[in-house]
Amino acid sequence: MSQVLTTPVVTNVTIIGDPVPGSFLRGSYFYDGTSPEENSIYRWYVDDVSFLPSPSLDYEITHEHARAKIRFSVTPVSTDGSMGIETYSLPLEVFDGYQNITEEEDRNSFMSQRGHYSVYGSDPKDRVFVGNAVAFSLTNGSSQSVNVRGRADFAGVPPAEIQQYLRNNPATRMFSTERDFGALVPVLGSTKRLLLWGNNMLNVPPTLDLNNIKYVYSNRAAVAFIYDNPPRGKNTIGAFGSPTLGGVVPVAIQSPLLFDPPMAIYATEYAFAVLTHEGRVYAWGNPTTGGTIPGNIADQLMYMKVERIVCTASAFCAIGPERFGDPEIKLVVTWGDANGGGNILAPEMETIIDQDGVDQVVANRNAFCAITKRRKKAVSWGYAPYGGTMGDSTKQFAARGNIMLCVGSAWAFCMVNSSGQSESWGAAGSGGGSLTDGKDEEDVDAAQLFEESGAKESIAALFNDMKIDDWYQQRMRSVPHKCECDPNTLPGRNLSEVVTPNGVISIHSNDSSFFLVAKEPDGRTKDLFAWGQATGGGAIPPNTRQVLMASLITGVYCTNGAYGVISTQGTTPGAVSAFGGGPAQQDAGVIPTALEDHLRRDVSSLYTMKTLPPFAPTASRSVSAFAARREDGNYVVWGGGGWVTDELFVPT
């Protein structure tokens, strides 16, 4: 009698992760067959166009995928040779930004605007892994459940009932505050309900409607959300968490949103601001961090059509044209803590107006820096010692314009013009050690440290060699070509990266240092150097530099005081290098020996657990850690001193 082969099948085919350029999506499915699975066939489709079978469940989304629809399929194959039917996921549309917040707004804000507790803009955009200060949640592709791990006092141990629910419901989207987590889970039909737990999420009142939620945002102690097509006359937004820190939306804000619906919600440390479709702004939460809009500022906002919002830790900066003025002239209105950028003075505003408004605004912890539209001049305001006020030489440099790069560390800024000349101002940051002259690192001026590092000369030589100014002047003289596939190729569009035919230059920052990477057109490393506090990533160890100079760098990420770099080394993809603060600084700049083998290859991205640095630099260091996502679905976690467990984490 001949043997009957049972055809294998796959179910629950889905895509894990947010489809945003720069993210890695993961295909996920359940296999069912008499014989074990072996060599099943994966395919990724872009607008229903099939590619060759993929060896990996991971798929990288780039700017070329903008507005395309992505699908994943599996054709199951078993060890006995039988093959099942190709089964498809639902399509996902690739979008730019997070829930109507653009990449530019998130990148230029100090606080993350992507619904999880973080600072700086280096985290992967797929949101498969979502951390708070020292705990994390991740969506597991093999089981389509959510794993949560970390300290119980940071919501790392969910209540038993919620934990069971997360095991039974696939493709949950996760969110976090400093000590809390939220999960947006599917219920009957297409309705989604928000589950909350943690220190600020105790005793959720039964009257709070957590159903039918479309978008979720977070600050340090609360979450805010936008409802999905609420019934007429019902609230359009909601919030929960610490009542005085953004956890309650005032009735006075709910009323106008009934007639001008919300588009997105932005966050400082302890406040929220909602932007409507008509460009109006309303805020709530702690008044000292932007939760109250003063009367004179509210009057200014009434005459502005707000298009973008950028945030420091304690202030909002609204950007947009006057309602009855030239729509191409973007002005700024700020509110919140005056020592956090909430008060722009008349001279800075006059410069902005005389320059036909701003092109972009960048934030560090306590200050803003605006790049003007016409001459690309730089103007800063906020807390004077930490980037709010430039020195005389820096002001002269900023007035010359043509600024191409501008990024903020916690308490400083660094900018580079098209000729490769550069300046830094503010405080050098929290080093937690001493310099050779005996001076405490946290007391050093950022400009002094930059001057002594030798990086200024290296940047100038690099820009000259890559002919950046020639390319910049040519592009600025010609009619701007607005490339729909990658807006970052326009001069000044991304103030942390320059993309030219002669290569790419990117600049990164953390609490106390800056890191610049230059790549040849084919991706080879052309040059790299760091400056700032040596114990915070401001010095690249010689052997690490040698390795990276011989590699193709594919990703750069930061914790509070360290950098993690993913590169292709020879024929080996996904190798991880790290430098900066180590265990003594409660950071992740040193890879534990026991985990080195798991980081030598096949890592697709690095996620972080970070801490909001204090208002002023101190000798103490912020706790932070890395988590590496391997292509086999496992994660390597390290850093954080005793607050985080160093481990190879295998999701179950």
UniProtKB/TrEMBL annotation:
SUPFAM superfamilies: RCC1/BLIP-II. It comes from the Bacteria. This is Uncharacterized protein. InterPro entries: RCC1/BLIP-II.
